């Protein structure tokens, strides 16, 4: 589903290039779930952005659904993202001009895979039924996070990428959201890559990788391969 | 206090675009307003100086036979005990080519309350009256003579022809480019011998004109100030429009700055800054920004005025004969006034922000949830305010309908302003309804639906810029339709009026000989002599009753021959066009539209006019349009005017025979009667000059109208730039969800282009209504006549194209930034919820 091969990435700074990822190799099979852990600045978010085609590696190759992202044009990467991925951001990134119902179905509609029955089920299971006409700013933080998860899962993506999906939530709500996320991922058959600080989030996933100084810390790999 | 103020201002360090937008709004609003006011102030100063001279407030005597007055005429009248004073007027050329008006006076007999005579002291009088005499002039005339202000007093500069002027003495009250000296010294410089230009007397000093002379009362001579009042009002209205549009930018920037600082305000309140102090700090911030913006605006305005003043001065001189100096003359109150208007406008624009800041509670501050309900409240408020302004406009209209023509110019402008303001206030609610309707229609197109929903979200911030665009577009269309219509009407009118091929003003002494000679010439197919005389309208008999009055009025004579009759336009006749002309030839009168509207006259009514043999009562056969005139006028056949009103001969129009060469005629005429070769004026030359004057008249109107549109475009650009960062953060999720950036850019362009198109579509009917208001209300109130309304589909198309073009231009920069922002950075920028 997703493959990183010797991926390097550095950012330009006034002091010269700052290496963030240094030769990452990674493979994620369809339906598999993987937690990516690491300190702040270890390169987790950069890796997630590269996986989504939001950015390109300086060297090495990232393949999504069998296609090398570096070989694709920006519009082609956007279309691949639209058709293949679901994205859950730490900051939710909901569209403020659309109500809950329209936000949830937005990506499914963009991908031409809108399924009203599935959307209704998602709303129900996410505890958002009855709130369809509200706008994002009228929801609590937990509700907004659940809506972001619903939007990502509405088109039944092959791969769900989640960046600290419970980072902004209290412990109780975080557990509730995580349980829901895993159940829905299981039902859709999507692969899952989660970037997180929290061992509680990483624990139920198939595998866990730890990034340290831009490299995969082999000693910290857990779970089946 | 200072720390809190610095904290408040630190917002602009992180959002320099907003600061730039605020200062830009203040700058352009203040610059255009100050520029026009500088022109008005300079012109008014020139008028005041001209009026303070002695030309407009004294009765004048001239010879009935058109011959120049002589010193002998003057002495004869003085010997008869009449209190007249001689005046000699002529033109001299300065070394730099400037034409200077020289006025020779006799200060001992000149009526004493003219500003010049009153300002003179006894000591000066001796120097003025005796050799080497004195040349009185204002300091702004010195440059033309090549004399510096420091060495002016006593200098004797040379003229272009080498003659020396008597020693200079500064007299600030004199108009620009005017020299005043004793009549003896003036006669020597002008080589005028015994002739005088006219005799003047205190108003009302003579009950009747002495034998052989014609008396023009002071009140029949409109002062430049009166004549040009509507011109300056027009400029002021345009400047006010620019000021309002600029203040829209300011209000948009202030609203945005407040919205983004709600959290900061809450923090400051929580840290112990009282609500009252917070408002005081915001006032201090406004004052600081206002002073910077206003000063920049005023100095730019002075620069703008310097650039525009020569054109305006030329227009005023050619259109109204009003002399305006090419140098700015700005009184102290201009600077204070400019500052006060800009700061006043700023506080008016900022009043809403201060009100909101004063009312927000500490806990309520910073909660963004209320914005949606707040905007809906705002839309309702705009609808209601628009209705109130529209009702005010209707009230003004009803009031104007009951006013006599020529009255209510300010109310007319008020009506036009109400129309513009009501439409601008209704624009955001209309756009909101339109977008909501379209959003429902676009259910199956997710991106289109998002674009429409997103545009609704942007509406609160774009509303003011769109309102400014609507006002500027409709003002542009209205003004260009009015000017275009006026142009067509004027050119038609010129064609109808100037039917002769050549025009000629024979010297009075040779008039009859020349006329007789021309009658024998085969090149001349028809002669069209004109005459003109001033008299008093004593009475009007209408179908609904009679009115007595004493209205000074001009009588004009034309020749209703084969050439003139078919082309001379008539607006209304008693019994049809042919009968009207037959009656005219037989002695009935035509009256111009100004006179008809001002006194409710119609064909069939009767006028009683003063005539040398007593009073003449004539019937009105028709009403004609008269676009080159600001006064009422009565038209007679030239023969009738000569026999019944003793009018002196005037100009001659010559219609040439087929194939005749006017150059031969001009040469023979010159040789036979010792006339200059250019005494015959080609009709095409007259039209060219008249059209040139017309075009120049509207140069400044067009310039201001275009500048206002430019300001509106800036308003839109500034609004978009101010929220560009936030917009990019809102677009980021869509890009992350798989919408390519190119498509996002296209969507943004389409959003603004469509909103501007809708605004432009509303601007078209509004512009037509505005043009109607200008030609049917303002024009009637200012000049007493109505212009036909012409519609120009090309102008309307241009308005729509301009609206979209302005929006696309304004969107291009933020869109380009979006295009160039690294995709990763889009997500890194903070989003809303």
Automatic annotation (TrEMBL), chain A:
<dbReference type="Pfam" id="PF00005">
    <property type="entry name" value="ABC_tran"/>
</dbReference>
<dbReference type="InterPro" id="IPR015854">
    <property type="entry name" value="ABC_transpr_LolD-like"/>
</dbReference>
<keyword id="KW-0813">Transport</keyword>
<feature type="domain" description="ABC transporter">
    <location>
        <begin position="2"/>
        <end position="224"/>
    </location>
</feature>
<dbReference type="InterPro" id="IPR003593">
    <property type="entry name" value="AAA+_ATPase"/>
</dbReference>
<dbReference type="InterPro" id="IPR003439">
    <property type="entry name" value="ABC_transporter-like_ATP-bd"/>
</dbReference>
<protein>
    <submittedName>
        <fullName>ABC transporter ATP-binding protein</fullName>
    </submittedName>
</protein>
<keyword id="KW-0067">ATP-binding</keyword>
<dbReference type="InterPro" id="IPR027417">
    <property type="entry name" value="P-loop_NTPase"/>
</dbReference>
<dbReference type="InterPro" id="IPR017871">
    <property type="entry name" value="ABC_transporter-like_CS"/>
</dbReference>
<keyword id="KW-0547">Nucleotide-binding</keyword>
<dbReference type="GO" id="GO:0005524">
    <property type="term" value="F:ATP binding"/>
</dbReference>
<dbReference type="InterPro" id="IPR017911">
    <property type="entry name" value="MacB-like_ATP-bd"/>
</dbReference>
Automatic annotation (TrEMBL), chain B:
<feature type="transmembrane region" description="Helical">
    <location>
        <begin position="235"/>
        <end position="258"/>
    </location>
</feature>
<dbReference type="Pfam" id="PF02687">
    <property type="entry name" value="FtsX"/>
</dbReference>
<feature type="domain" description="MacB-like periplasmic core">
    <location>
        <begin position="463"/>
        <end position="669"/>
    </location>
</feature>
<feature type="domain" description="ABC3 transporter permease C-terminal">
    <location>
        <begin position="704"/>
        <end position="823"/>
    </location>
</feature>
<feature type="transmembrane region" description="Helical">
    <location>
        <begin position="752"/>
        <end position="785"/>
    </location>
</feature>
<feature type="transmembrane region" description="Helical">
    <location>
        <begin position="278"/>
        <end position="305"/>
    </location>
</feature>
<protein>
    <submittedName>
        <fullName>ABC transporter permease</fullName>
    </submittedName>
</protein>
<feature type="transmembrane region" description="Helical">
    <location>
        <begin position="334"/>
        <end position="358"/>
    </location>
</feature>
<dbReference type="InterPro" id="IPR003838">
    <property type="entry name" value="ABC3_permease_C"/>
</dbReference>
<dbReference type="Pfam" id="PF12704">
    <property type="entry name" value="MacB_PCD"/>
</dbReference>
<keyword id="KW-1003">Cell membrane</keyword>
<feature type="transmembrane region" description="Helical">
    <location>
        <begin position="459"/>
        <end position="479"/>
    </location>
</feature>
<keyword id="KW-0472">Membrane</keyword>
<dbReference type="InterPro" id="IPR038766">
    <property type="entry name" value="Membrane_comp_ABC_pdt"/>
</dbReference>
<feature type="transmembrane region" description="Helical">
    <location>
        <begin position="412"/>
        <end position="438"/>
    </location>
</feature>
<feature type="transmembrane region" description="Helical">
    <location>
        <begin position="379"/>
        <end position="400"/>
    </location>
</feature>
<keyword id="KW-0812">Transmembrane</keyword>
<feature type="transmembrane region" description="Helical">
    <location>
        <begin position="797"/>
        <end position="816"/>
    </location>
</feature>
<keyword id="KW-1133">Transmembrane helix</keyword>
<dbReference type="InterPro" id="IPR025857">
    <property type="entry name" value="MacB_PCD"/>
</dbReference>
<feature type="domain" description="ABC3 transporter permease C-terminal">
    <location>
        <begin position="238"/>
        <end position="361"/>
    </location>
</feature>
<feature type="transmembrane region" description="Helical">
    <location>
        <begin position="703"/>
        <end position="722"/>
    </location>
</feature>
């Amino acid at each position: 589903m997703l493959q990183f091969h010797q991926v390097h990435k550095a950012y330009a700074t006034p002091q010269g290039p700052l290496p963030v990822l240094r030769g990452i190799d990674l493979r994620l099979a369809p339906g598999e779930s993987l937690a990516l852990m690491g300190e702040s600045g270890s390169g987790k978010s950069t890796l997630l952005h590269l996986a989504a085609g939001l950015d390109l590696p300086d060297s090495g190759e990232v393949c999504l659904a069998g296609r090398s992202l570096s070989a694709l044009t920006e519009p082609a990467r956007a279309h691949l993202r639209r058709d293949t991925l679901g994205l859950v951001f730490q900051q939710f990134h909901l569209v403020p001009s659309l109500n809950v119902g329209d936000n949830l179905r937005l990506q499914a509609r963009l991908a031409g895979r809108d399924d009203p029955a599935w959307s209704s089920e998602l709303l129900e299971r996410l505890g958002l039924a009855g709130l369809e006409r509200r706008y994002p700013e009228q929801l609590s933080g937990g509700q907004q996070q659940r809506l972001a998860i619903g939007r990502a899962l509405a088109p039944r993506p092959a791969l769900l990428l989640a960046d600290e999906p419970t980072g902004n939530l209290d412990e109780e709500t975080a557990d509730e959201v995580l349980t829901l996320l895993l159940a829905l991922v299981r039902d859709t058959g999507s692969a899952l890559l989660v970037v997180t600080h929290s061992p509680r989030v990483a624990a139920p996933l198939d595998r866990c990788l730890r990034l340290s100084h831009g490299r995969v810390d082999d000693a910290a790999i857990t779970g089946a391969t | 206090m200072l720390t809190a103020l610095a904290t408040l201002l630190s917002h602009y360090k992180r959002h320099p675009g907003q600061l730039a937008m605020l200062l830009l709004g203040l700058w352009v609003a203040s610059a255009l307003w100050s520029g026009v006011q500088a022109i008005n102030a300079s012109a008014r100063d020139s008028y005041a100086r001209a009026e303070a001279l002695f030309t407009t407030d004294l009765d004048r005597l001239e010879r009935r036979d058109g011959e120049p007055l002589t010193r002998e005429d003057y002495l004869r009248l003085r010997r008869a005990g009449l209190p007249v004073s001689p005046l000699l007027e002529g033109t001299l050329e300065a070394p730099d080519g400037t034409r200077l008006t020289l006025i020779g006076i006799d200060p001992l007999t000149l009526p004493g309350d003219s500003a010049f005579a009153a300002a003179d002291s006894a000591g000066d009088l001796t120097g003025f009256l005796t050799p080497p005499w004195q040349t009185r002039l204002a300091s702004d005339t010195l440059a033309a003579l090549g004399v510096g202000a420091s060495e002016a007093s006593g200098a004797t500069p040379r003229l272009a022809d080498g003659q020396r002027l008597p020693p200079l003495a500064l007299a600030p009250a004199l108009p620009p480019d005017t020299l005043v000296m004793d009549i003896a010294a003036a006669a020597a410089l002008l080589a005028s011998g015994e002739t005088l230009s006219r005799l003047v007397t205190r108003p009302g000093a003579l009950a009747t004109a002495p034998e052989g002379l014609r008396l023009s009362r002071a009140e029949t001579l409109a002062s430049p100030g009166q004549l040009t009042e509507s011109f300056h009002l027009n400029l002021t209205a345009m400047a006010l429009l620019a000021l309002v549009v600029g203040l829209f930018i300011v209000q948009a920037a202030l609203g945005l700055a407040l919205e983004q600082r709600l959290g900061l305000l809450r923090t400051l309140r929580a840290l112990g800054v009282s609500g009252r102090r917070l408002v005081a700090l915001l006032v201090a911030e406004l004052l600081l920004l206002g002073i910077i913006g206003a000063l920049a605006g005023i100095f730019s305005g002075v620069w703008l005025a310097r650039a525009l003043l020569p054109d305006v001065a030329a227009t005023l001189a050619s259109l109204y004969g009003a002399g305006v100096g090419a140098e700015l003359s700005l009184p102290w109150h201009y600077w204070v006034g400019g500052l006060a208007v800009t700061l006043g406008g700023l506080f008016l624009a900022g009043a809403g922000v201060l009100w909101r800041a004063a009312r927000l509670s500490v806990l309520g501050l910073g909660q963004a949830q209320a914005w949606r309900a707040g905007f809906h409240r705002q839309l309702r408020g705009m609808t209601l305010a628009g209705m109130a302004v529209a009702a005010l406009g209707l009230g003004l209209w009803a009031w104007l309908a009951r006013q006599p023509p020529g009255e209510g110019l300010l109310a007319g402008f008020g009506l036009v302003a109400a129309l513009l303001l009501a439409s601008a206030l209704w624009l955001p609610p209309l756009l909101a309804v339109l977008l909501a309707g379209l959003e429902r229609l676009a259910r199956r197109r997710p991106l289109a639906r998002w674009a429409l929903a997103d545009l609704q979200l942007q509406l609160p911030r774009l509303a003011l810029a769109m309102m400014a665009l609507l006002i500027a577009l409709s003002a542009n269309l209205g003004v260009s339709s009015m000017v275009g219509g006026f142009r067509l009407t004027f050119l038609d009118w010129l064609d109808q009026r100037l039917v002769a091929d050549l025009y000629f003003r024979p010297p009075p002494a040779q008039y009859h000989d020349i006329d007789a000679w021309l009658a024998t010439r085969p090149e001349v197919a028809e002669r069209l002599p004109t005459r003109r005389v001033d008299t008093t309208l004593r009475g009007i008999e209408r179908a609904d009753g009679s009115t007595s009055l004493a209205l000074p009025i001009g009588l004009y004579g034309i020749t209703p021959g084969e050439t003139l009759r078919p082309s001379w336009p008539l607006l209304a006749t008693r019994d049809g066009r042919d009968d009207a002309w037959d009656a005219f030839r037989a002695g009935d009168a035509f009256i111009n539209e100004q006179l008809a509207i001002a006194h409710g006259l119609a064909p069939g009514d009767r006028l009683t006019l003063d005539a040398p043999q007593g009073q003449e009562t004539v019937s009105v056969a028709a009403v004609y349009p008269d676009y080159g005139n600001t006064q009422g006028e009565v038209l007679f056949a030239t023969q009738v005017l000569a026999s019944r009103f003793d009018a002196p001969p005037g100009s001659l129009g010559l219609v040439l025979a087929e194939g005749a060469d006017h150059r031969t005629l001009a040469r023979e005429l010159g040789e036979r009667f010792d006339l200059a070769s250019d005494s015959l004026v080609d009709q095409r030359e007259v039209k060219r000059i008249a059209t040139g004057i017309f075009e120049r008249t509207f140069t400044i109107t067009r310039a201001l109208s275009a500048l206002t549109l430019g300001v509106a475009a800036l308003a839109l650009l500034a609004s978009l730039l101010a929220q560009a960062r936030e917009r990019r953060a809102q677009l980021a999720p869509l890009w992350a969800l798989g919408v390519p950036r190119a498509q996002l850019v296209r969507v943004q362009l389409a959003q603004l282009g469509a909103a501007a198109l809708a605004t432009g579509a509303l601007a078209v009917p509004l512009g037509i209504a505005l043009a109607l208001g200008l030609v049917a209300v303002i024009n009637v109130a200012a000049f007493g006549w109505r212009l036909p309304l012409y519609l120009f589909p090309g102008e309307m198309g241009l308005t729509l194209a301009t609206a979209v073009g302005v929006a696309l231009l304004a969107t291009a920069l933020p869109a380009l930034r979006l295009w160039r922002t690294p995709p990763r950075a889009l997500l890194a920028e903070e989003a809303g919820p």
